[in-house]
Amino acid sequence: MVNQSTCKMALSKIDAIDTDIEHIDQEKYLRQATQYYCALEKPLKYGPVVETLPDLISALHREFESNYVNIEMVNHLMLSYKSNPKEWRKYAKFDRYTYTRNLVDAGNGKFNLLILCWGEGHSSSVHDHADSHCFMKMLKGELREKRYRYPNRPTSSEDQQQHHQQQQHEHGEINDHELQEIGDTPIPVNDVAYINDNLGLHRVENPSHADTAVSLHLYCPPFDTCSIFQDNGKKATAKVTFWSKYGVRTKPTEQ
User: Fold this and answer.
1) What order of strands is seen across the sheet that includes strand 143-148?
2) What's residue 131's pLDDT?
3) 3-class SS at 157?
4) If DSSP codes are grouped into helix, strand and coil, which group holds residue 118?
5) Please, which residues have CB within 8 angstroms of residue 172's CB and are 6 or more apart in sequence?
6) How far apart are CA 100 and CA 68, in angstroms?
7) Which residues of 90-120 are buried (b: 16+ CB within 10 A; e: fewer)?
8) Residues of the chain below pLDDT 50
């Protein structure tokens, strides 16, 4: 026979957990999760299957409805979706001179889903992700990710807190040695690469001089600026813009 007092205690604990979840600051929680999350290599064995891009968008919205976001499930959803050019072609806008960032869904302000289009030989600068999660899935072609150690980034939580407080009073350049490369990885179609600032910085490039590439990116929380880095470790702040939104070319005032 089940002890009623034990059941009441268990229910009260569940209620307390539910109450805590309701009061979780989603953005703060997601940023804290970057300190320990490293990424899935394969989809979850019992996770839902995502068959279309609209299904992926709907599933992501469901995940972000709760203040507590299961970042592992978000990772699974990105892995589960298989590229179908008929679904994403309308968002794929290329520019002759640079890669483009094209907004697919703004995630009700909780995440951004973008398609990035890379012409032959196009590459990004070395950059961070403003303490957010970045998932990058290949839809067409192949990209290479070169990863670098984050200059002057502390490892312990206490050091990180002191570092963030210090950064609030500093602007512009940081003083450090040259960037240290820690990885060089190809990303083929339907693979997903993941990075956050705790794992390092990266530069993404299309190594092909004959073929274009297209990638699907999820950023959570979304951010308006990030830091870009020179080879000597000095950084500057860069504004994040969109070449198009929802398949329509943006005006300079809307970027």
Assistant:
1) 181-187, 143-148, 201-205, 126-127, 225-229, 235-239
2) 97
3) helix
4) strand
5) 235, 236, 237
6) 32
7) ebbbeeeeebbbbbbbebeebbbbbbbbbbe
8) 1-19, 156-176
DSSP class of 123: B
Q: Which tokens hold the place of 55?
A: 């299904």
Whole-angstrom Cα distance, residue 217 to residue 255?
18
pLDDT, tens digit, for every residue of 39-69?
999 999 999 999 999 999 999 999 999 999 9
Query: Given this model, what pLDDT does residue 69 score?
Result: 96
pLDDT tens readout for residues 182-196 = 999 999 999 999 999
172: left (phi over 0), alpha (psi -120 to 50) or beta: left
Q: Are 99 and 117 in contact (CB under 8 A)?
A: yes
Q: Identify which of 197, 139, 190, 118 has the alpha carbon closest to the alpha carbon of residue 163.
A: 197
Task: Report the candidate in 66, 63, 61 with the shortest Cα–Cα distance to residue 24.
Answer: 66
Contact by Cβ (8 Å): 144, 191: no
Report pLDDT for 21: 59
Report yes or no: 132 and 219 within 8 Å, Cβ to Cβ. Answer: yes
Residue 171: both structure tokens together: 């602007």
CA dist., res. 54 & res. 220, Å (int):
19
User: Which ranges of 132-188 does DSSP label H, i.e. alpha helix?
Assistant: 157-167
Q: What per-residue confidence (pLDDT) applies to 242? A: 97
**Cα–Cα distance for residue pair 63/222, rounded to 1 Å:** 15
Distance in Å from the first CA to the final CA of the chain: 64
What 3-state DSSP class applies to 174?
coil
**φ and ψ of 218, to 5 deg:** -120, 125
